[in-house]
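#onboarding

Welcome to the new folks! Below is a worked example of what a typical request in this channel looks like: someone posts a single protein sequence, and someone else replies with the predicted structure as tokens. Don't worry about understanding the tokens yet, we'll cover that in week two.

Example request:
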Amino acid sequence: MAFSKNINNVFSLVFSEKNIKNAEKYILYIASLGFVLHLILIFLNSYNLIEISFGESNLLRNPISALYTPFSFILIYEAFLLVYYIPRSFSTAVSKQYEIMSLIIIRKIFKDIPLVDLNANWLTTTNNLQLIYDLLGILIVFFLIYLFKKTQKKTPKRISNKKLDLFIASKKVISLLLTPILIIVCCLSFYSWLKGIGNESGFNENINYLFFTDFFTLLILADVFILLLSFQYTERYCQIIRNTGFIISTILLRLSFSTDGLSSILLIISGIIFGLLILYIYNLMAEKN
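Example response:
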């Protein structure tokens, strides 16, 4: 009990309501500033006052692309918010993962729109097809997230006990350990991004997944640790399968970063559908037990 109490105190201190609100406020300030700076760079680049290469990303071609920057900061905030949600429940954390993936797709749309060629054949032009995939993808993903949250509400509530309290405390330890690691990863990703400015080989389509490739890798490792911890606190078959299924869902999301185009969207949709079905079947089994 002393372990749980000490961890809860540290967790409440680090993830206090005041800290979260301050983080949200500063992220919005930084996102707004980044949006303005991006617009200025687009203006300067349009009039050949500066010359910065972003490889194939073309983030300085159109003012619409400036939306890419604030969404990037918002996504980083959402990623750290996910760390805060980890101790609540596996399904809550997974739901947040799906929301992050939807925001990544939306951010990508802002980058794809300026690349569209309205005079070309939409079914044979790569950039035009990519926009279609992303638009259809975000609609499907958004609907699947709605279904997941709706199914999540039907999940039987856990009765608090000593084992459950220890398990939650253990997950809070993982969240506390993940926080500084993610800050370091975020800083290293930003450093790599700065190094790539002006270097055409340093920027390609993977800019969409900068930081998030490492972030989801860490999430998978964290989920595996949580799964191993859960064996100490539960012997229920359906719960073990549910937690394992959510890890597989996260792996599918992570695999989507290794490809692009339709394959990437299909992996994201497949990952969410798999998680949704796992949760639905778990609820059916949990109701009968």
